[in-house]
Structures are given as C-alpha cells and as structure tokens.
Amino acid sequence: MKQSQFEQQHQAQWQAFSAQLAALHSGKASAEQARSFAADYRRLCQQLALAESRGYSSHLIEQLQQLAMAGHQQFYRHRSPIGGQLLGFVLAGFPRLVRAEWRFVLAGMLLFFGSLLGTGLLVYLNPELIYSIMASDQVAQMEQMYDPDARRLGRFGERDSGDDWLMFGFYIMNNIGIAFQTFASGLLLGLGSLFFLLFNGLTIGAVAGHLTRIGHGEPFWSFVIGHGSFELTAIALAGAAGLKLGWALLVPGRLRRGEALRLAAAKAVRLIGGVVVFLLLAAFVEAYWSSMTLVGPQVKYLVGAALWLLVLAYLLLAGRGAHAPD
Amino acid sequence: MFSSPPRHACPPLDTRYQVETPEGIDLQLRPAGLIPRALAFAIDLAIRGLLLGLGYLLLALLGQFGMGLASILTFLLTWWYMVLFEVLNQGRSPGKQMMGLRVIHDDGTPIGWAASLTRNLLRFVDILPFAYALGILSCLCHSSFKRLGDIAAGTLVVYRDQPPAAPQLADAAPLRAPFAMSLNEQRALLGFAERAGQLSAPRRQELAAILAEPLQVPAAEAEQRINGIARGLLGPT
C-alpha cells in the first residue's frame, strides 16, 4: 500500500485518537472514549509498526510515534488513591519493610545509638571530654537551655509562651532536613550516612552525658524522652536507608552497579517515607508536649516510656497479619 | 519484508533513547543535555527564591506564628517543590516547562512519587562538593545525561515532543526506481525529499549527485529524479 493511501485511510482515526487523548488528559472523557481507549491505543501501535516495516517516510512515522508516546503516557499512568496507599503503608507496609531490611536497620541503630550511649557514658565519667567534642560556648548555651530554673524548656527556652508554632516549624525544617541529608549522603559509598549517624550520635550523647553530670538531668531527660522515641529512631532509620544505598554500590552482587543502586533506592526511599511520618510526629510532640511545664517530670517519663514501647511494638509487630489492612 | 533489519539495527548517530513497550513498538525519547537542564534548574531556583522572599515578607507580619509558617514554607520549597510539580504536573517543574523538558521513568512511563522523591533527595549528593560538580560530571559522562539522582531513581529528563510540521515536497512526476530498494534506501530517499526545504540548493545538488551513478542519470538531474522517486513511493496525494 502506498503511503498516501495509508494516510488517507487512517487519518480520521488518528485525529479521533488525538482528541480522545486530550479528553482523557483533561479528565473530561466520555465513558465510551474511556472504554475504547485501550483498543484504540493498541491499534495505533499496530499501525506504527506497520508504517515502520513498510518504510514510510519519517514525517509520518514521527507523527505516529508522538501519538503512541502520548498514548503510552496515558495508558501507563500510575494513578492510585494516595490516601489509601499512605494508610496501608503506615499501618503495615513500613514496619514490614523495616523488618525486611533488618540488617541495615540494625547497623544504623547500632552505629547511632551505640555512639550515643558510648559517648554519653564517657562524657559522664570524664567531665573534660565534652570540650573536645563541642565548643565551650555551645556547651554553655546547652547548660542555660536546660537550666532547672528555666520556665520553659527546649531550644527556644527564653521566648515567651504561646508560640509553639515557631518551634513546630523549626523542628520540621531542621530534623527532616537532617534525616534527608543522612539518607542522601549514603550515595557516597555509604560514607556520608556513616558520618552523619556517628556525628549526631556523638553530639547528642555528649550533651546528654554532660547535662546529667552537672545536675541538669531532670529537665533534659523529661524534655527529650517523649519525642526522642520518634526522632532518634527516625534518624537511625534514615541512616539505614543511606547505608543500603552505599552497600548497593559497594556490593552489587550479580547486578550492574547502576541497576543495583536503582533497586536499592526504590526500597530505601520507602523507608524515608516512613521516616518523614515519624519526624512529623516527633516535631508535633516536641513542640506541643515536650515543652509543656504544666505536668511534672514523672508524667513525662511515663508518657515517654510508653511512646518508646509504642515505637518498638509498632516496628516489631505491626503488619504481621496475612493481609494488609485497608 | 520481514527479514529487513529493524530501525535500531544501525547504531544511531544522535542521542535518541529507545524504549521497547509491551505493545512491541519502540518509543523514541530525546534526552536533554546539561545546558537546558541547568537553565531549567536556574529558572526554578529563581522562582523559589522569589516565592520565599515574598512569603517571608508576608509572614513576618504575623509574628512568631508567621515565623513558624515561614520555616515550614522554606522546608516545602527546599525539598518538595520539585517533587510536587513533577508528580502532579506530568514531570514538569515550571523551569522544565519553560525549557520544553519533562521527567519520566526510563521505561517511558510517567514519573511517580517514589522515583521523583529519590531523584530530588539525592540532589543533595549531586550538588557536592560545590556547584553541582558531581551531578555535572555524571551528566556529562552518561550516555543519556543522567545525574546521580537520575541513575538511582531510574528517571530520564527528555524533550517534550513538538508536533512535526508538514513537509513540502518539490513538484515532480512520480517515477519508479530503476532497481528494487531496501527499506533503508527508501527511507533515505524519502528523507531527502522531505528535508529539501531545509537545505540550500547547492547542498541538495551535492547530496543528490552521490546517487547519480546508481540512478543512471547525469549529476545535474539526480535531484529531480530522486524527488520523482519519492513521489512515486508516497503515491498520489
């Protein structure tokens, strides 16, 4: 068949397909258009293949290819209700993923909490050590922040009450930023994640050890215990996701490095999704609960312990059923 | 006819990226290089700076509540601006939209949340150690111009297709070729006839003269002969 005949024969179909695409794209397609789309797309693909094998001119092939491309984009759209997906992920998908990646999670936890507890203990026993980890004015600032006589607690100790919003915003910005950095820098063969895990572990541990030793323990611990459950776990998980990236580059197994990285990143980014949820919770708790001085430290310790247990139980037990709750 | 080599048998001279779809056809994608991508990023950066400046000015009026919102705004613009635009606007942030680009998965499907989040979080590594050095190196070394984030996320920045303009064929009486032509030869002749408008007359003659001998005509008539054969291949219009 000559090309011009072929064009004349199918031109109307191509125009209709084009209109159908535009309608589907703007979400105004009639039921009939939506129903026939798959068949129309397949027919277009067949016509394109025919045109190519018959050696028709590149103008026609270009035109058909663009239609096929637009059809492909429409046909393979990943459109699923984000709300339901998110709920399923939070209720079951995330803890399952954490358990499936238990090696990296364990490594991240050991690095972070290990360095945190180790430094805390060392600083508690050797008072001078804090000054080789932090500058002296930073130490003084920390001491002032958690002074037992202060009216409100936390990083914005001296400001007047009421504006928990300021803190909420700051915590979101700061903490999620840190988690993202910890994850992303894992691409540097895992070294970046290693650095951020150890660095944060060392700093937090040093502050905790120092404040406990000089007798500011109660305001400090009662402040951090609540949101620490979400926040510290989330940082360790972000580190685990970063380590997974680095490991895929170092030990790709039978895959090519690029492919191994792509597969690892697809899982790691889901971990990060859970980390974001954790950190949003942490920011909320930190801004609205941890800084409250209405309740005594005992209540805070109790609630804090309950939150730690909750996080632990969630990561270990949630989503063990056969079906995802939806 | 079925034994003829497929289109991609000869390695292409350009940077086209081929994806074979489940329907058995090859989609042709045109990956975008460093310069248009850098320009798109610069535009996005400027837009974000502007939004941030305006947001700070307005929110400063609200006191500390406003400062909290400003922090959240900064966070959203830093980490989520690209992700939201790419997923909700068919792979086009405003900068990419202006430069005629879009992001897609490297299997040709539209970009989703996970891939977009991955490529934009790993931007943090691409900008290391300064001024996007790693990203630029990776982009220049990769055959389809991927930066590290693109490699990890399995995404590709491509040009958006512009509808092709209808070609103007020179007038000529339809002719039959003096010998049976392979598909590639057919395509070459048609390509020459369709692109005639973009070439200067001496260049057309020079190109056509290459075929003078196989077509058994004097070099001066080769162009006319090729146009005639192309007409003959296309059929009556």
TrEMBL record, chain A:
<feature type="transmembrane region" description="Helical">
    <location>
        <begin position="104"/>
        <end position="125"/>
    </location>
</feature>
<feature type="transmembrane region" description="Helical">
    <location>
        <begin position="191"/>
        <end position="212"/>
    </location>
</feature>
<feature type="transmembrane region" description="Helical">
    <location>
        <begin position="301"/>
        <end position="319"/>
    </location>
</feature>
<dbReference type="Pfam" id="PF01944">
    <property type="entry name" value="SpoIIM"/>
</dbReference>
<dbReference type="InterPro" id="IPR002798">
    <property type="entry name" value="SpoIIM-like"/>
</dbReference>
<keyword id="KW-1133">Transmembrane helix</keyword>
<feature type="transmembrane region" description="Helical">
    <location>
        <begin position="271"/>
        <end position="289"/>
    </location>
</feature>
<keyword id="KW-0472">Membrane</keyword>
<keyword id="KW-0812">Transmembrane</keyword>
<feature type="transmembrane region" description="Helical">
    <location>
        <begin position="232"/>
        <end position="250"/>
    </location>
</feature>
<protein>
    <submittedName>
        <fullName>Stage II sporulation protein M</fullName>
    </submittedName>
</protein>
<feature type="transmembrane region" description="Helical">
    <location>
        <begin position="165"/>
        <end position="184"/>
    </location>
</feature>
From TrEMBL, chain B:
<keyword id="KW-0472">Membrane</keyword>
<dbReference type="Pfam" id="PF06271">
    <property type="entry name" value="RDD"/>
</dbReference>
<dbReference type="InterPro" id="IPR010432">
    <property type="entry name" value="RDD"/>
</dbReference>
<keyword id="KW-1133">Transmembrane helix</keyword>
<protein>
    <submittedName>
        <fullName>RDD family protein</fullName>
    </submittedName>
</protein>
<feature type="transmembrane region" description="Helical">
    <location>
        <begin position="65"/>
        <end position="88"/>
    </location>
</feature>
<feature type="transmembrane region" description="Helical">
    <location>
        <begin position="38"/>
        <end position="59"/>
    </location>
</feature>
<keyword id="KW-0812">Transmembrane</keyword>
<feature type="domain" description="RDD">
    <location>
        <begin position="32"/>
        <end position="154"/>
    </location>
</feature>
<dbReference type="GO" id="GO:0016020">
    <property type="term" value="C:membrane"/>
</dbReference>
